[in-house]
Amino acid sequence: MLLLKSRRQRESVIVQTMIKMYCMSHHGSIDSLCSACNALSVYAEKRLLSCMYGEAKPVCKECPVHCYSPPMRDYMRKVMRWAGPRMIVRNPFFAVMHMIDNFMSANPKKRSSLKTKQK
Ligand SMILES: [Zn+2]
Predict the structure, then answer these.
(1) Cα 70 to ligand 1 centroid, rounded to whole Å
(2) How far apart are CA 40 and CA 86, in angstroms?
(3) Which residue, 72, 78, 65, 70, is CA-closest to 104?
(4) Contacts for 59 with CB less than 8 Å, ≥ 6 apart
(5) Are 63 and 108 contacting, i.e. CB atoms less than 8 angstroms apart?
């Protein structure tokens, strides 16, 4: 089902699932997210939808645009670091691994080469 969707929709589903898992475990939420996690969820969705690259969006690690504000990025990192491994156990989906990788590491060399290509 996930494979039928576009990459952006897939990323959105994965991110939203991870936030939900994190919030349930850390903030005791059941049906809805706590306000902090809800803010992150809305923010992530907005960033994804307004990505200037559209469907051609590069993986975030290699993207020259840092669209997350530092506090949101830190929060998202925390969520991914916790939820990522658990998500893989539940749903061994390669894209998840890929996304965590995007968030956790940065490759300045690749980023700068992307930047120069853009010009
Ligand atoms: Zn929460």
Answers:
(1) 18
(2) 19
(3) 78
(4) 98, 99, 102
(5) no
Residue holding tokens 């960033």? 47
Taking every pair of C-alpha atoms in the chain, what is the biggest distance, in angstroms? 47
Spatial CA neighbour of 104 closest among 77, 86, 64: 77
Instruction: Dump pLDDT digits (tens) for 56-101.
Output: 766 666 676 678 889 999 999 999 899 988 876 666 665 566 666 6
Model confidence over 90-110: pLDDT tens digits?
666 655 666 666 676 655 555
User: 52 C-alpha to center of ligand 1: Å?
Assistant: 28
Hunting for tokens 């894209």 — which residue is that?
A: 95
Domain extent, residue 34, equals 2-118
